[in-house]
Amino acid sequence: MERSRKRIEKQLQQTIIMVETLLRMPAVPRTELLALASWLEGLGREELFKGLADQVSREKATWEQMNAVITQPIVKELLQPIVDQLSDRSRANRIRKELVVTVTRRFLENIKWKKSLEQERYMSRFFSSVEDTLSISHDIAMDAVIIDHSSIVESLELFQKLIKQMESAFVPVIIVGPNRSDIRQVSYEMGADDYWDETVTNEERHVRLARLLRKLRVVSSTILVDELTGAYNRKYLQNAFDRRVARLEREQRTFGLAIFDIDHFKRINDLHGHPTGDLVLSELATIVQQAARLDDEFIRFGGEEFILLFSAETVPQAVASMNKIRERVERHIFANGLKVTVSIGLSFAFDLLTSLAQATAEADEALYQAKRNGRNQVVSYSTAISIEKIPVYIRVEEGFLKQVHTLDMPGHPKYHIEVIPLDDQRTSPIQLAILSLDQLASENFVRLEEWRQQRESIIDALVVTDQEDDRLANALSCGATDYIMTSQIDSDMEEWIAEWIMQIP
After folding, report:
1. pLDDT value of residue 47
2. Cβ atoms within 10 A of the Cβ of 219, count?
């Protein structure tokens, strides 16, 4: 079984390399294109490659009639469906690790716990305060939160807000504190799902954590409504899309898929606080659902993004419907007197072979065009718009740059991942910085504070260090995301980056 899995993973990576090679060539001999087709047809007996094999089988006869040498724009068009499927397969072939967040100022005392989490295949992240945890909680998908009791005492009001937010997402909260019955009782009264005192060993912690996460998975798989907004959640989306396609086949009822994104939502959270941001999300859902028709389906896709599945007969009619909703949002006075706008990307007129991934990718690209064109508008996807992935930069200190360039990273259907030097001036909405602890310490950790103040982008920082000392604890308390040891950099860096890419929403 393990040998078969590794063989399939290797074949997948070989296929990706072959396709990337063809896409880098200024012109491609027809024989190279047909060689790729034969390779994929040969892999068709494996379930993972069946869709790819069927795709090229349909196209191969056309390819055989083409010129002996094919220009790159045509090659890109021919290979786009295969690229889309490979992006889905390479991403789906990896399992996202569950993210366990620990809130403590006693980082050095928790190194053993962190390592045991990672040995059990969890992602681990540390924050030094409840405030820091709350500020980032809208941007990352937490699966469990473990908090030192002393951190709660310092910020009880913020902890109550965090508890409320975690409850709405069914994320378990565990309090770690002294072996005192009065503190244990108060912790449960405040909403903790478990309480660990010093008598609970690491082995028992893992058993109790696994039990809570099992419950979270069961609840997540059965609840189809987003607690905050009342919209459906993304678990509802696939079945809803499939029903629309079935009606298209049975009744020729055409439909559209629109992605709504609140303009400058991160700025709203930063300037007015996350509670106000939550109210904006909730009010937006109410406005759209009131403006939509009864059979339209509104779904929270993630963060400040929503999807609307709606019936329409033509593209102009679909655009007009979305503009009415956009204008209604623009006229509304939100919480704290805020004026809010939305950008909307629209995909329409699917055929029966259109997948949800393709439809959302098209709507996402149209949304990206709306953002680039100035926001607060509706853009419909057309063949004139090529699916251009949003850039995500991995900024790397010079000493690690060559090594990172050689790593095998998974693709992403929405983002184009690019490795650049640490001080490159380009920016993107989501970034990862990889740098040494020495570099951070030499700047007195100012760079981390500057990144934390960024309002137009999220910047995670992976620190490379020789030893786990007070400087590392300082870096983590200033906002560093995680660290890897220099002695384990070859084995740990590729896996860490791959997991980070998978976590991107």
Report:
1. 67
2. 12
**Chain centroid, CA 451 distance in Å:** 20
DSSP lists the bridge partners of residue 69 as 29
Report the candidate in 428, 423, 375 with the shortest Cα–Cα distance to residue 401.
423
Q: How distant, in Å, are the alpha carbons of 139, 141, 453, 501 from that of 265?
A: 11, 17, 15, 22
* CB contact set of 370 (below 8 Å; sequence gap of 6+): 343, 344, 345, 377, 378, 379
CB atoms within 10 A of CB 23: 14
| pLDDT on residue 349 | 67
CB 277 within 8 A of CB 265: yes
SS (H, E, C) 151-169: HHHHCHHHHHHHHHHHHHC
Which regions in the chain score pLDDT beneath 70?
Answer: 1-7, 9-10, 13, 24, 45, 47-48, 87-96, 138-139, 220-222, 349-350, 383-388, 413-414, 455-456, 505
- Gap between the Cα atoms of 392 and 395, Å rounded: 10
Looking at residue 9, its pLDDT comes to: 67
Return all residues near 73 (Cβ < 8 A) that are at least 6 apart. Answer: none
> 214 vs 68, 123, 143, CA distance in Å?
56, 16, 11
Q: Which two tokens stand for residue 290?
A: 């009131």
CA-based max dimension of the chain = 80
